[in-house]
Amino acid sequence: MAPPLLALRDIRLTFGGTPIFEGAEFAVVPGDRLCLVGRNGSGKSTLLRIAAGQIEADSGERFLQPGTTVRYLPQEPDVGGFATTLDFVRAGLGPADDAYRAQYLLEQLGLTGAEDPASLSGGEARRCALAQVLAPMPDIVLLDEPTNHLDLPAIEWLEAELASLNSAIVLISHDRRFLSNLSRRTLWIADGRTRLLDSGFADFEAWRDAGKTTLINLLTGTLPPDSGAVRLGTNLAMVTLDQRREGLDPNRSLAETLTDGSGDMVSVGEEWRHVIGYMKDFLFTPEQARTPVSRLSGGERGRLMLARALARPSNLLVLDEPTNDLDLETLDLLQEMLADYAGTVLLVSHDRDFLDRVVTSTLAWHGPGQWIEYAGGYSDMMIQRGGDLDRKALAKAPRAKSAEKPVERKPAARKALSFKDKHALQTLPGRMQKLQAAIAASQARMADPQLYARDPATFGKTADELHRAEAELAAAEEQWLELEMRREEMERGRSD
Ligand SMILES: Nc1ncnc2c1ncn2[C@@H]1O[C@H](COP(=O)(O)OP(=O)(O)O)[C@@H](O)[C@H]1O
Ligand SMILES: [Mg+2]
Q1: Do residues 194 and 245 both lie within one domain?
Q2: Is the pTM of this model over 0.85?
Q3: CA-189 nearest atom, ligand 1
Q4: Do both 252 and 194 map to the same domain?
């Protein structure tokens, strides 16, 4: 890959006590088409401002290849301070730039160049600012919501104009079509960190949905793995509650949904309950018994799904984003129900507080194909993995599992450990630690944005070393996990 024109590394930033970034990074290469995505307030605009050099992070590095020209379109552009729009756009040109392009772009964007910038509407101001950013054909353009306030013809014009530029483009937009058409790489900002997907926004959602829903489908046997094995226990009675709240008949009443139209009684696990009493457990009033599902609110539907799922006899409950659109009361209720639930709960959630209150073990995504299990809830996971290199956590809790090779539960009878196995079990953690240190060192060396330009041979050699160490570490982890499972198995056998 070409050396970066612009790179941000280990960016940390706190606004009034709230951490916005805890180690964010990205690099822009020539001709890049990178989009930044994340929820509202996740820090997209802030990261772009840091990239533009408009604000400084508390710590971290910003590297700009000398001589690189950068233009930045803020989310709220300010076009004041000039007599005409043409003056404003021309002010952005360098001495070697084509002055005619300023006028051309203004006209393409529906302005004459003679307008008074102070009297522009929001949409006109953005078009004027866009002309200023694009006129000099910079090496890098950073665009924060460029399509806001633009009409469809203007959006299509902009899309075509950007597609034809040689400049590297970094883009934030709510316009999914625009993002899909233009981007080739996607940077996801979440929880103060950045993760890079090496393809455009069109692939982003499938990739983010972070693998989780796919993992659940693998664990529950709905989806066969590409390789590796999933072993489901015997006598498994699984109930799945999915995030889309499908499977409710809108014409049925609340009571009918719970009793399956068979009278006033609900079969709850092993016992029979009166439907009104059971409804009350889920915060419904007796009057709601005859209410059709179609008239229930989103939160009430969530509660009904929950009531129905928990009535079925099960020992494994699978919940995929159960807290989406639940009100606080229902959240508390769900938490209580799960605490009382005798079986195993498999929960996928973005709700950190809920995770902390409910779960006893966390499987976290650490990059494509990498899931790591931590004891405890979300906060415990964050503590265990530290603000540090994710892989370091393995030294303390080596439980690496890759999504292609999901958890092989309850393996068949295993051989006793030989002397050699016991020796390996003792020495592998030390070996893994050494490999982790070597990986960290190679990564640190390669993170120097100038290394490639200065010394391509060392860059290549370091990359090879890194790959070798990563492969060795993966093999060592695999072996350790296998031996450790056998050891646990033997110990369990002895104490049974
Ligand atoms: N100058 C500032 N002072 C304090 N808080 C800020 C400032 N700028 C942004 N924030 C906060 O930082 C967070 C990220 O904001 P922003 O980068 O605008 O998010 P996004 O563009 O992803 O919606 C938000 O919680 C926002 O309120
Ligand atoms: Mg923003």
Answers
A1: no
A2: no
A3: 22
A4: no
